[in-house]
Amino acid sequence: MLVTNLTVNNHRIPVKNLDKVYWSAEGYTKGDLMNYYTQIWPWLAPHLYNRPVSLVRYPDGINGKFFYQKDFPKPPFWVENLPLQSSGKVIHYVMINNLETLLWSINLGCIEVHPWHSVKNRLKYPDYLIFDLDPMPPAGFNEAIEVAKLIQVLLNELGLQAFPKISGATGIHIYLPIKPVYTYKQTSSFVKNIGEIIIKTVPSLATNERKVTNRSGKVYIDYLQNLEGKTIASVYSVRPVTAALVSIPVNWSELPHCHPAQFTLKTAPARVRQVGDLYQPLLLLKQKLPEHLIKAKI
Q: What is the rounded distance in angstroms from the CA atom of residue 65 to the CA atom of residue 67?
């Protein structure tokens, strides 16, 4: 087993098997993944800072077995650790607050990173909510765009500004930055209520049906991704899919002309260097939600 020692900010990280192929069709390796995350770190860092994360580990690449890991009771001393009570036990969440922690997690076989929607000093109150649009075949990316644009129009009518990103698969994520004064239950209710308006408008196109077999040909608006402890692939996260697609923000104006295949671990860094962080407003914009749309329906 080949072990290489990386030194980042004076911290030594033993990394193994950088030449292991994670994407067999393209030949992309664990080393390629580390190189991508090192390049993208300046733009990724603000979106992970002080947020507990769940790591999705693929030690044998995207075609091997994978597992989610939340609990890291004994990480290296430079890895920030947040112990939280859950179902009568303590889970030691990692927070990726520096590049060495990110590379340590990639060495564990992590391909994508899933941060909480809230930060450690106000865990009960998210900084944003998410519309997770998941098309079910024969519906695809184009149908997800249609639903996303309808949501944008409705949110604009409510005086709210939201930001789309391509999920890195066939779906779209829409982030709505908010004041951190709403509970997870309230944000889930808001997404469900907005979703129900869209579904009534285009019942043949959109659904919130939880049973997968009943979603055929429609775009699922997944409000449950906003419940406490639920996570979704971070902005700039590589996805464990063919071609190593990246979950990347786009402008509303360019969304109809985009395709997920444009953004991979090989092409995304140049894109972000060119356009900057289109999700920077998430860190700055604090919007108030209409009271009548946060009534509990969960």
A: 7
